[in-house]
Amino acid sequence: MLNENKYRILIVDDHTLFRRGLRALIDSCERFEVVGEATDGLEGVKMQQQLQPDAVLLDLDMPVMRGLEALPQMINHNPQQVVLMLTVSEDGSDLLECMRLGARGYLLKNIDTEFLLDSIEKAISGDSVLSPEMTSKLVTRLRRQEQADEKITEALTPREREILRWLAGGNSNKVIARNLDVTESTIKVHVQNILRKLNVASRVQAAVYAIEHGLDK
User: Fold this and answer.
1) Crossing angle of helices 132-155/184-198, nearest 10°?
2) With contact defined as beta carbons under 8 Å apart, do 171 and 204 qualify?
3) Are 109 and 21 in contact (CB under 8 A)?
4) For residues 141 and 87, what is the distance between their CA atoms, to the nearest angstrom?
5) pLDDT digits (tens, 9 = 90+) for 125-167
6) Of the ranges 7-21, 98-112, 123-137, 195-209, which is most confident?
7) What are the residue ranges of CATH 1.10.10.10 in the chain?
8) Which CATH number, 2.60.120.10, 1.10.1060.10, 3.40.50.20, 1.10.10.10, labels domain 156-212?
9) What's the DSSP call for residue 91?
10) What is the CATH number of domain 3-139?
């Protein structure tokens, strides 16, 4: 395979021995070439912007800037960027947060070498990839999140849901009060209750929640 046809990989990991071993493994495969190594998230973000790799292998826990901080910056720079988390963390919350932030996959460092190489290629081709041990954890976390969202939605009164729809439309308390024929102070109390029940800090966050959960219609 000609060099220009190889997939270009950036490794971001603070452990020197692991990083060098990973580079040797990837470079030994004719499908890939490692174009850079970074020792922390901040350096990784800078190198990603400079090198424009086909895929980034990103550790979760690093000094200076963690993987969870670097990930959204990489995606913001290039929304199509393939980022695979390569970590020792089997925490379902880490997994869910990484996928929410745009990671294409979540792989544990103890995976088989062929599985890793195949996963990189699948991710570049557009698939999402997970270590086998993490699949059930993702399903469990999503189910718990769905159940929690249902409880939150059920906690809202019909009037609060109605006001939430108006909030999702970007309307002020004054506009909502006029349309619902109540006082602004009444709307203010309802909005405060909505923010508390949704566990969000602002009207904007409440509006985003409503849109994401189909409560804006």
Assistant:
1) 150
2) no
3) no
4) 18
5) 988 888 877 766 665 665 666 665 666 677 788 899 899 889 8
6) 7-21
7) 156-212
8) 1.10.10.10
9) -
10) 3.40.50.2300
